Structures are given as C-alpha cells and as structure tokens.
Amino acid sequence: MDDAIREIGPDRTLLLVDDDEPFLRRLERAMAKRGFEVEAVLSVTEGIARATARPPAYAVVDLRLEDGNGLDVVERLREKRPDARVVVLTGYGAIATAVAAVKIGATDYLSKPADANDIVQALLVGDGGLPPPPENPMSADRVRWEHIQRVYELCERNVSETARRLNMHRRTLQRILAKRSPR
Q1: Domain range holding 33?
Q2: Does a structural domain hold residue 183?
Q3: At 3, is the pLDDT very low, low, confident or very high (cuts 50, 70, 90)?
Q4: What are the residues facing 16 on neighbouring strands?
C-alpha cells in the first residue's frame, strides 16, 4: 500500500448507512472481505441509534436518505467518537454539500458510483495525506449527465423548470433525459 494509506487498525468496526439496499448489501460484503467488522443500516434513525450505542471507528454514510440527511449521522458519530474516520457518499455531488460534510467532520466525500477500493482508500488515508486518484474516474459526459439528473430531481422532475435552470432548450433536455447514462 501507498505510504499515505494506513492499516485498518485494531478497531475494525464500520458503520454503513445507505437506503439503497442492493448497493448497501454489496458494499457490506466487499468491506467484510477487506477485514472490517461491518454493521449496515438503511436509515438516518438507525444510523444515529448505532452511532450512539456503539460508535464505530469507521463509517460510510449516504448524504440523502429517505428519512433525512446523512450528515445528522456524521454529527452524532463525531460527538460520540471524535477520532472516527467518516466518508460521505452521494449521488448528488455538489461543492456546497462537500464543504458541509467536511466541516462537520467527514474525512472524505465521494460521489456515487464509488467502488469498495475507493472507499477503503478514503477511509484509510493518513492524516494530511491524499488518496490516489480513482482508477476509473467518471467521464466528462457522465459528470454532465449526473449534473443534469441532479437538477432534474431537484426541480421535482419538471422538464420545463430544469431546462430553464440549466439554460438549455427544452427539447434538447428531453433528448438527454431519454437516453441512457454515458459511461
């Protein structure tokens, strides 16, 4: 491993909080294979309860969950265990949310889809170190598509409002939305 990457350490407890159950179960298996003692939950409520009862050494928390904001889990975990290393995941990457996550104590912030190797590197990066760049970063087309999808969701799937906010023609937006996501 790189010098900037640490070993897991004696406390291998890891809390995963994500409401996408198939993704959560895959990540749970992948992290267990990498040596973590994983506890996976599907909601902010469960995440706060676990962070309060048994604060883990590591956590991976989705930003947007059905019952609230994942940053609430990060805050509770920081109160109970200031040395915990926390990675915030989101499908709605934005600079403002990244700054908010880091300010309340997240170690790193990753956009979905992030694979288990990227997450482990973010969790184990040494203090002051930077993890290596991702092996398979998103293409520029994919980043653009993700941004359009995020704005579309924020506009409650209103095509006209999304087109206005993105300063693009409505028909162009409809064509983009009708296509599959680029790789």
Answers
A1: 13-124
A2: no
A3: very low
A4: 40, 60
